[in-house]
Amino acid sequence: MHLTVEDVRSRFLKHFDGTPGSVYASPGRINIIGEHTDYNGGFVFPGAVKQGIIAEIKPNGTRKVRAYSIDLKDYVEFSLDDEKGPTATHFRFIFGICREMMKLGVPVEGFNTAFAGDVPLGAGMSSSAALESCFAFALNDLFGDNKIEKFQLALAGQATEHNYIGCNCGIMDQFASVFGKAGHIMRLDCRSLQYKYFPFDPKGYKLVLLNSLVKHELASSAYNDRRKSCENVVTAIKKYHPNVETLRDADYDMLEQVRGEVSAEDALRAKYVIGEKYRVMEVSVALEEGDYEEVGRKMYDTHHGLSKEYEVSCPELDFLNEVAKSCGVTGSRVMGGGFGGCTINLVREELYDNFITTAKNAYKEKFGKEPVVIDVVIGDGSRKLC
């Protein structure tokens, strides 16, 4: 289902005073390449998608926020002067953004809002970042005269996750939601926060996610283990190369130099991260040249690294990757932190129908369920719709 302004407005008018407000939207995101690189000071390559959050918002002349979640059929009121805010997570995002925007000097006042989203849950497309970015952009427009720069809006969303949700996330999701640009993906340097748009208009190809419907409970502790592995290797390398701050600064020769001083597991994980650094740069060149076959090859290489070196895949994701390969799909890899979620696939249009049919049937035969197909179109970032 494609979410429309009319879907949101009809619920807004019903639940509030019958007069319209302003409507804003922010997208979810995909990431073409660059996984587990953010905390290693490296690069990511996200793009905004058509799916996202739409919210209608209207100042109400009080210090209270009155919010209705259309998807969850849930309503809450909270005061902007309350230190604790609501307990329900979906409303804490809005409370947190209000508080963070106020810290930035935006004189937020009370408002009525109804909001809904069509970002598939559990697909790793960052519906939470879309929600944060939508309200950050809206509050800046309604109360701040657009004085807050885009990067500050993204950082406000990240701070909301840290301070009100308890999730110590990076900046990629909020960055992609705020800065998205139709027909382009963005290379973000997670150390300097510099970014560059790259054209992404693969004529003759489709981009599609296959959601494995797998969510592994080990993801949090396993993530911490891998982060520690990276830090262990950096500590060893720094003895010989003091300027190395993260694995972004390391190369294969440095890794070989310390191989006898770190565990085999740590060395293998560092090998993946260093390789991913080079793959992101190679994809940058391929995109500028319009060489989507090369982009696809690097996607497969990344999947191999995530599965066999970083060990964050799972049998279901590896199976979908193998099906893609057998169907002649240009590129396929696990997207996101791993242990479940989606594969992202770059498919020639003439192969698309066969790939989807084959993947559904083969996956159902092996795992007893069909993967969920999510077609992806690269879209614009946070914006006012009307």
TrEMBL record:
Q: Which GO terms describe its cellular component?
A: cytosol
Location of the GHMP kinase C-terminal domain? 286-349
Q: What class of enzyme is it?
A: transferase
Q: Give the EC number(s) under which this enzyme is classified.
A: 2.7.1.6
Single Gene Ontology BP term?
galactose metabolic process
Q: Which Gene3D superfamilies match?
A: 3.30.230.10, GHMP kinase, C-terminal domain
One Pfam family, short name please? GalKase_gal_bdg
Pinpoint the Galactokinase N-terminal domain residues. 11-59
Domain spans labelled GHMP kinase N-terminal: 96-181
Key words, A-Z: ATP-binding, Carbohydrate metabolism, Cytoplasm, Galactose metabolism, Kinase, Magnesium, Metal-binding, Nucleotide-binding, Transferase
Per its record, what are the GO molecular function terms?
ATP binding; galactokinase activity; metal ion binding
Matches recorded under InterPro entries: Galactokinase, Galactokinase_CS, GalKase_N, GHMP_kinase_C_dom, GHMP_kinase_C_sf, GHMP_kinase_N_dom, GHMP_knse_ATP-bd_CS, Mevalonate/galactokinase
- Could you confirm whether the keyword Iron-sulfur appears in this record? no
Q: Which NCBIfam families match?
A: gal_kin
Which protein family is it in?
Belongs to the GHMP kinase family. GalK subfamily.
Protein name, as recorded: Galactokinase
Q: Which organism is it from?
A: Alloprevotella rava F0323
